[in-house]
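User
Here is a favour to ask of a fellow structure person. I am asking you to supply a protein in sequence and C-alpha cell form. Please set it down just below, with no commentary around it:

Assistant
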Amino acid sequence: MAKTNQTKITALYERLSRDDELRGESNSITNQKKFLEDYARENGFKNIQHFSDDGYSGTNFERPAFKRLIQEIEAGHVDTVIVKDMSRFGRDYLMVGFYTDMFFPDKDIQFIAVNESYDTKNSNNDFIPFINFINDYYAKDTSRKIRAIFESRMKDGKRCSGSVPYGYMRIPGDKQTLYVDEEAAKVVRRIFDLVCEGKSCKQVADILSEDKVLIPSAYAKSKRPSDCHCKTYHDAYRWNSTTIGYILKRKEYLGHTILGKSVRVDKRGKKKRVAVDESELLVFENTHEAIITQEVWDKAHKKKRISNKKNPNNTHSNRLSGYIYCADCGKKMGLVTQRRKDSGEFYYAFQCSQYRNSAMYGECDSHYVNAEALEELILESIQKLSAHVLDDEEAFIEEVTQKCNQNQNEVEDAKRREVESAKRRIEELNFMLKKLYEDNVSGKISDRQFTFLSSQYDSEADSLEQKIEELGALVIEDKTDKANPRKLIALIKKYIDITEITDDMLFEFIDKIYVHKVTGGRTRYRQQQIDIHFNFLGEYIPTFDEISEEERIAIIDAEHKARKRASAKKAQANQKERMRQLEIAANNGDQEAIEKLAYKKELNRQRSARANARLREARNADPEYIAKQEAKEQARILKVQEQERKRIERASRKKKEKRSELVARAKTDPQAMEELMALRAKEKVARDKKKAIQETRMAEDPEYAKEVTAKRKEYNRRHSESRKAKLADMKLRAENGDEAAIKELAEHRKYFCEAQTKMRAKMYAEAEAGDPIAIERKEQYLKARRDNYHAKKAI
C-alpha cells in the first residue's frame, strides 16, 4: 500500500465544523491528526504534511487548507491524500464525486478514506456514492432543521437579525423591541419631509452633507458601537443617494417588523439573495413606535417616483413626467421635445423609453402620445369620474369593493393552483427517484448515472418545496386596503366644477397612466387606448359608457364630412367675396381688374361647359341598355366557360372498362381494387335507394306488392337451381380429379361455412334483441340440431 515516490507529500486532510463539535471529541482536529498519522506510519507513508480546516462546513469547498491542498496538487507536489472518512473530505456529494472520480485520477493522486476502506488505486467500494449521498443528506437535513427554527421564529414575529434600523435603538434585556432614537429619528423625518417637498435622493444627500449630519454608520459607531456593523467609511459626513433610497424603503419607520428580507437560494441555505418581491416578506404591523406616518410614507414614495425629470438634453421638463408608463413593456415613458414648424414653439410628447434606448428600435413600440392631448384626456376623465361618483356614492363604493374582492380571489386562486402543481410534480419526482433506485440496484444504470440523476431530481424537489413554503407564507395583500373609495369621494368634493388641472390635483388624483400602442395608422381612424389609474381605487379602473367600433367610425366619418362641408362653404363664400371686390375694382376703371375679371369669367364658362358635357353624357346613358349589355356579356362568358368545360371533359374521358375486366385487374392491382370497392359502394347506395322506393310503393299498392313478391320468388328459384347445377358440376369434376375444381370446391365450402356462421350470429343477436321472427328461427334451428343429434346417436 505504501507509495514508491517518497519525494512527494502525503497529505493528511482534517476538517471540523461547529456542528461536528457537538457530536463529541472523536471528531476533533487533534484526534483526526493522531488517527491519520498512525495509519500513515503503519502503512509506510512518508513525508507527511497536515492540511487542517477547523470550523469550516463540509457543504462547500471554499476552505483555506483545502485550497492550499489543491494548489499543492496542481503544482505536482502531492502523491497521496488521506482522510479519516468521506464526511471529513466533504458533504456535497456532487463535488466529492468530482474530486474522487475525475480530479484525483486525472492528477494521478491516490485518495484514501480510512473508515470506509476506500482506496482509489487498490480497492473499489461500490457503496461510496451512497455514503456520499448520506453525508450530503445529513448536511441538508441539518440546514433544513436550522432554517425551520428561524422560519418558526420569524413567523411568530421574532427578530433573528442583530441589525437595528437607523433611527431606532435597543435597550438591555430586550432584543426584540425597537425603541425610537429621537436624535436619529429627527434625521429620518427630515429626509422624508425633503422628499415630500420634491427633492431627489441626491439633493437630500447633498443637504445633509452640507449640514454635517453623521451618516448612519458613523452615528452608530459613536453612539452605540454594539449595533454598528460597518466600522470603516471614507467620510463620516458624506451622505449618498443610495443611503437615502435605502432609508426611504424601510417600512420599519411605519412601526412594522419586516422579516425574511434575504431568501435562501441553495438547498443548504448558504447562498442567499435579497427579497425583491414584497410577497416574499413577513410583515408584522404595529410592533413598535412609528417614526413616519402612512400618509407621509405614501407621499414621499410617490414624489420620488414622479420626480419631474428633464429631457435627455437637460433643457425641458413636463409635469406629467413620472406618471406615464408603457402598457406593453411596463417601462416609464420618456419626455420628447419638438418644435412646431409654423410657429417655432416647443411642444411635448412622451415615448416608450425601452423603444428609445434600444439601438435597433426593436425592444418595444413607440407608444407616442402628445402631452397636451393627454392633459385634456386627464381633465375629461376626472370630470366624468366626478359625475359618476357623485351620481350615487353608495353604489360606487359597493362597485369598487366587489371588483377589488374579485381581483383578490383571482390572485389567491392562481397561487393555490401553483401550490397544487408543485405538489403533483414532487410526487412524480418521488416516484421517479424510487424507480431510479430500483434500476440502480438491479444494475440497469450505473452508480454514476444514479448519482447524477438523483441529484437533479433532489435539486428540483428542493426548489419546489421552497416554492411551496414561500407561497404558503405569502401575506396576500387585501386589495380593498389599497382601494379607499370614501377618500376619493372626499377628494372629489374638495374640487368641485373642475375646469383645469393643477399640479396638486394631478398629484392627488392620478397614480399611474398606461399608454397602449396606436392602432389605425396615419388615418382619421387612428386611436390609442389610455388607462388612467386613480389614487384610492387600487386595481379598479372605472369604465364609462363606451361605443362600438362601427359607431366610432360613423361618428368620425360624420365629423369629417361636416368639416369638408364647412370648408367648402367657407371657400365658396371667400370666392364670392373676391369676385365682388374684383367687379367693384373693374367698374371703377381698374384695367388690371378688368382683365382679371374677364379671365375669371372665361374660366368659369369653360368649367361650366365641362360640367354640362358630363351631365349630357350621364343623361344619354340608358340604364336599361347598359343592364341588357351587361347581361349579354355575362351570358357570353358563361357559354364560353361551358364549352371549355365540355372540351376538357371530352379530352380527359377514358374508355369505359368492363366490370369483369376490372374484377380481373383488381386481383393484382391495388388501385383497381380501390376502384372496384368504390364501384360496389356506389352500386349498394343505388340498390338501397331503389329498394326503399320499392318498399314504399309496395306498402301503398297491394297489387304491385304481389307482383314484386312473385318476381322475387321466381328469381330466387332460378338462382337456386343455377347454383345447385354449378355445385353438382363442380363436385363431379372434383371427383374426376380436376385440380381447379377441387380448389374451387374447397373455397366454396369455406365461404359457405363462414356465411352460415355470420347468419347464425346475426340470428342470435336479433333474437336477444327481442325480434319474434328471429326467436322462432332460432328455436327451429336448435330443434333441428337436436333431432339431427339424436338421429345420429340412434344409428
User: Anything to note?
Assistant: Confidence is low (pLDDT under 50) at residues 475-481. The two ends are 97 Å apart (CA to CA).
